[in-house]
Structures are given as C-alpha cells and as structure tokens.
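ENTRY TYPE: paired fold submission
RECORD: A
CONTENT: sequence, then structure tokens
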Amino acid sequence: MNGWNLGSASGEAGRPAVGAARMTKRDLVTRISNEMGLTQTSVKEVVDRVLKHISDSLADGDSVELRNFGVFTTRLRNSRVGRNPRTGERIPIPPRRVVTFKPSKSMAKRIESLDL
C-alpha cells in the first residue's frame, strides 16, 4: 500500500473509484517532512502558502502553470436548465465560474499507463 487514506467515493465521474487511494494535505505534509527532514509545521506552512497563492491567482482570473504537472485555469460555464430529480421540475441553473485542470503530457502519460 502507498500510505494514503483509502477513499470511499462512489466512482462517479471525477471521483476516485471505491477503494481507490486518496492523498490528503496531511499525507502530503507528512511525506515531504519525512523525505526532507523538516518539521511538519514548517512543511504545512509552505504547502498552505503555495495553495493560497494558487487560489489567489485563480480568483484573480489568472492561470497557474506548474511544469511537468499541469495547468489550472478558470472558465465560465453557461447557464442551463436542470431538473429536480424528485419532482422532475425544470430549474434554471445560472452561469458560473469553475476551475479546470489540464494535466501535463508527462502526467497524462503516467495516468494512462495505470492498470485498469
């Protein structure tokens, strides 16, 4: 096992399958701390600051490119009509901004090579 927490998601689109490993921020901090010989407190501060800068850039409408990892961007989702699953009633869904992620070629290649 890889030391990650086990997920329990339903396997829906965009979510890990049942039993798939999931890395949390705490797991990331612990791994980096152990690998680098740094305190978990100092590593957590750096991870928090990195995530804050990524979030701030996206909130400002900028994209964030991390070489050999991928690119985070925001885009506008158009308004659409949805349905209440219980009543079948049509409900207008307003447009909104969403964050998208496009993996780098090297990451996409690693993901594609995973066993099914």
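RECORD: B
CONTENT: sequence, then structure tokens
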Amino acid sequence: MGGDVALVRCPEAKIYDHGPQHPLRPQRVLYTWSLIEACGLKGRAVGGARISLKHANFIVNERGARAADIEALILLAEKAVREKFGIALEREVRIVGDA
C-alpha cells in the first residue's frame, strides 16, 4: 500500500473507481484524505496546527504551530484510521529530530 491510496472496501469513506476493473473482482480505491475525513478529523486542531478544512491530507499552520503540534496531528490521524479501518497509513514525510 502506498502512502496515498489503500485498496479496501469501506462504506463510510468516499470511494472512487480507479482504472480498468476485472469483471469478476472490481477494485475500488480509497484515498488517504478520504479515510481521515471519514474519521471525523477534518478541521481538528492541536495547538496552532489544524487538519485542513479543504483537504484532509494537509496540515495547516494557523497560528505559530510547533513541530510537536504537527506530529500530534499526524499520530492522531494514523491512530484513528488504524482503529476505524484497520489500515496503517504510511507517512510521506520523515520526522527529523525531537519535536
């Protein structure tokens, strides 16, 4: 599974057709932002950082967010998606140093 797509069945998340489908095994793609949104995290804030209201795959620095605020939101999204859907998200960023 890549960092931005997951191949699963999930009635709560927004599902999109993705390319040609095998007639006996149709495949659906769930985007990471869709899973985060389905967990109710769109707009959630920690300190000065917020999961974007426009696109749940982005964290916005609204008012002097610290690295710890951003990392807390990442951990929150990872945990929520894992608990609700059983999917372990893969980060597209690497945390360097201590928050």
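NOTES ON RECORD B: The chain is about 25% helix and 15% strand. Confidence is low (pLDDT under 50) at residues 1-12, 15-22.
STATUS: closed
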